[in-house]
Specification:
alpha/beta, Rossmann fold, pyruvate-formate lyase- activating enzyme, 3 domains, seven-stranded mixed β-sheet, six-stranded parallel β-sheet
């Protein structure tokens, strides 16, 4: 590594990690280099969830940001506090072992309070560390997040490009003005730059920095997703974005579907198989099957390899984007489970939530899944603003009569940043006498003249009882509970939904 005469700045090549002497900022940028005073020490953190029984799997988003930072020559560590029994001890230990210039905290809404506690502790342990927040919750509530005096900046939206530019500016000690997608505080004043107007090129992203994760610790975690067939399972993303506009969803990745090239997806699968012994992949895309030809090509690459792998699609796939050929190829590739989001059987509610699902296609798609030995789970949701009890019961009857093997009945939660939250706010259909804007977590409980949250919980339990008591589903569940792992999963679901006093001290909303 060379140092230019009379200048303490370095330039690092983003594609080959070779440091080059500084010939000026203009030249460095022209050739794709990052002007750096020195390699930064970066600590990326996933905080603990508010709900103790939520396990999100590996922090794949942080692993991607870590890879972006490493490609620029920075020193990166990842701290997953979800794995720690005591988050504060984990943070203290991390700062005792090595100081850091930047602490990046990525969080969903259910992790935000834990993230705030972590940021406050970092401010005490290392006042000079720049604390930047990113992820789902900071994206939807950046102004509230930046109000916290322990937060220096917030990355809004899809993070990789904003993160890369932020690192360049920070390393070069340049102003953060003009970094699209960044909100930051300077001299006590908040600056919110323009939003980023371009999408991240998913094919240009590096492979996530799996080497920074202790993957062995994740293999024995009981994931929220469907039980894995092989314990050496990991999450993977093959695409970003969803063009549909359901009012309860966040919009972190935008409304344009971007699928990675099948060959790149296969390269990552093969890498994880060969280097980490991964045998099952939980595909976390918003809508894996948006592009049928691409989805089939990924299956073909797996089939042609001859590897015996497992796949499951527990984040939901779009009902209308199936044909029998895709289902057959999924099965041949090793898929054992798919989840399909139906939400409501009421046409009126389908229009209200902008789901607009073609429900008459459901049984055909489920028949294909059963024909090729793929288990199915239906996502249903109750408690939308203005929803009648009769419509909730219609959804319950529809689910019971369907050919789904399992079902998840959730209570609609109007998270901040969603159109559902706006609808609840505008109609005043929420519990409590305070305005939603005062609830800075953005989580409220909807209500109508016919039901409140307590009544919804009763209807939710009713739905589970009726669903599993029809079509011999209860007996099928008992047959699955042959291993301790599956027993823990189903017993946990039972205690969470029927005997709250036996469940965790803090249980997930749904």
């Amino acid at each position: 590594m060379c140092q230019s005469p009379g200048d303490r700045a370095w330039i690092v090549c983003g594609c080959c990690n070779i440091f080059k002497a500084d010939r000026g900022l203009r030249v460095g940028r022209e050739y794709g280099y990052s002007l750096m005073t020195r390699p930064l020490k970066v600590l990326l953190i996933r905080p603990k969830s508010t709900y103790g029984d939520v396990v999100a799997g590996i922090p794949i988003g942080l692993a991607m940001l870590a890879a972006v930072a490493e490609r620029k020559g920075h020193q990166v560590r990842i701290l997953d506090l979800g794995l720690e029994s005591d988050a504060a001890i984990g943070v203290r230990r991390a700062f005792e072992s090595d100081a850091c210039d930047i602490a990046g905290i990525g969080c969903m809404s259910v992790e935000f309070l834990g993230g705030l506690e972590t940021a406050r502790l970092i401010r005490l342990l290392s006042p000079g560390t720049h604390v930047i927040f990113g992820g789902q919750h900071p994206t939807i509530m950046p102004d509230r997040v930046i109000e916290a005096d322990c937060v220096d900046s917030v990355c809004i939206g899809e993070g990789e490009d904003t993160w890369a530019e932020f690192l360049d500016r920070f390393a070069a000690r340049e102003s953060l003005d003009g970094v699209e997608g960044l909100c930051f505080r300077r001299n006590g004043q908040t600056t919110r730059n323009l939003p980023r107007t371009t999408y991240v090129d998913v094919d240009a992203l590096p492979m996530p920095a799996y080497h920074l994760l202790d993957l062995e610790r994740y293999f024995d975690i009981d994931f929220v997703r469907f039980p894995t067939v092989d314990r050496r399972a990991i999450q993977i993303f093959t695409s970003r974005g969803c063009p549909y506009r359901c009012i309860y969803c966040h919009d972190l990745f935008g409304k344009r579907f971007r699928g990675r090239k099948p060959e790149l997806v296969w390269e990552e699968i093969r890498f994880l198989h060969d280097n980490y012994g991964i045998r099952e992949f939980m595909v976390e895309d918003d809508i894996f099957n948006m592009d049928l030809a691409r989805a089939k090509r990924i299956c073909d690459l797996v089939i042609e390899s001859g590897l015996k792998l497992g796949f499951q699609f527990g984040n939901g796939v779009r009902l209308e984007r199936f044909d029998e050929e895709l289902m057959r190829k999924l099965a041949q590739a090793g898929t054992h489970h798919v989840a399909i989001a139906v939400e409501s059987a009421s046409d009126r509610i389908q229009r209200l939530i902008k789901k607009n699902l073609k429900l008459d296609r459901l049984n055909q798609v489920l028949d294909w899944a059963h024909r090729y030995g793929i288990g199915t789970l239906g996502f249903f949701m109750i408690g939308f603003p203005g929803e009648k009890v009769a419509e909730i019961n219609q959804t319950i009857r529809f689910a019971c009569a369907s050919k789904f093997d399992e079902a998840l009945f959730s209570i609609a939660t109007p998270y901040a940043g969603t159109e559902l939250n706006d609808l609840v706010r505008s109609t005043g259909s929420f519990e409590g006498d305070k305005d939603i804007d005062e609830d800075w977590e953005g989580v409220v409980r909807a209500r109508t003249d016919e039901w409140d949250h307590r009544k919804l919980r009763w209807l939710q339990r009713k739905a589970y009882c009726l669903f599993f008591l029809t079509r011999f589903r209860f007996l099928k569940i008992l047959m699955k509970m042959r291993s301790p792992r599956l027993f823990r999963r189903y017993w946990g679901a039972f205690t969470r939904n029927f005997t709250p006093f036996l469940g965790a001290h803090k249980s997930r909303i749904n």
